[in-house]
Fold this sequence. Notes:
CATH class of the largest domain in chain B: Mainly Beta
Helix content of chain B: 10-25%
Radius of gyration of chain B: 29 Å
Oligomer: heterodimer
Order of helices and strands of chain B: HHEEEEEEEEEE
Largest interface: A-B, 15 and 11 residues
Shape of chain B: elongated
Number of strands of chain A: 0
Largest sheet of chain A: none
Amino acid sequence: MAKTVDQYFDDLRGTRVWRSIFRSGTGSSTLKRALAIQQNVFLHLFSTKVRSRMLSFSATWYLGTLTLSTFLILVATGIPLMFYYHPSAPQAYADTKDLQFVVSSGLFLRNLHRWSAHAMVFLVFAHMFKVFYRGAYRSPREFNWVIGVILLLMTLLLSYTGYLLPWDQLAYWAITVGSNIASAVPVMGEKIHFLLLGGNAVNANALLRFYVLHCMILPLTAMFFVAIHFWRIRKDGGLYSHDSEPATVRATAPAAATPNAKEGQ
Amino acid sequence: MADEIKNNDDVNRRQFFVKLGLGSLGIAAAGTAAFAYQYLDPNVLYEPSPVVNAGKPDRYPLGSVTIDVNSGIYIIHSDEGYFSLSAVCTHLGCMTAWKPELNMIACPCHGSKFAVSKQGKLGPGDKIEGPAPKPLPWKHIWLNDDGDLLVDRSTDVPPLAPDSFVRV
């Protein structure tokens, strides 16, 4: 009798090599399936058990997952772009043009990076609106909302720092205007402006600083907070689905009960 | 017995070392913060000189307003003499432009408008309308020994003051 794909996969999961890497073995009992999540370094951030209601499209519209997807696309396209881009004043603009007209698939990667960046900003806001109007920010998820606000800030800063890198007129004046907004901070405004740009005007130092912020500091910071964000989803009882909430939480949210009950059908 | 003679203010050995350790870490953290701040604050800047050579005065006819986009200054030849205004908008740092048809300086970013000559209560550099919080500053202008007009972009001078003009 021919084996099915599932059976081949089960055989693979039973091998010594697989078990040495992923620790959990084969088996479809609730315990084995839970262990497969819990004992895997890549999956352990997530809940071992998820209610199907939480995974329904109407519960979240998948906005958080979509935001993560755009972030992963941005990492995957941003790293290849770094191979051709020199963050120096004489070369940055020429490299951007080369990526568009000379490098194979450079146009595709750059455009994918750009459109994903726009999509990520949109999705982060959509995600926040969904969480807000669902009331999913309430206890015990208040702190995860705070982490979310930090991630919004990271997204906007990534977007802002990336804007300078093509080193064209649009970039130059956008960063001139944007960095002058920082000067409006009382007392330390001028100093913040100076430190951000590494000088008094947008020049080579500013380009390099924005490049390091865009490619190293901000992505790493964002990943750190994304990890906490996901871990808190599990610790706070999984994704928010109004129908699955304990009665005490539902009782404190009478206003949200009616529309959700209808939507859940 | 030892407990009886112990004063409440005394710090035992463990507490002492905890305080010593935390104190050292605090000093190290403060030193690191100071180090990081100093490192990120450039001591030498390779920026263009603030002093700009604007050339011979006869390049600028009487009544003309000339912008040097690269250095961000206007050279204006008025009846009182030559004077220089910053061309950088005081709102958010955009480069303004001279609009001869309106007889004023206008900023393309957010629509601030500035006077170049006396208009009622307004003098050259003063804001006519828009979000700009301050007038365009007057810059120090003088003639060097070769007869060229020089402008120091880092030095503001009082508007309409006698020393703020160059007369040839």
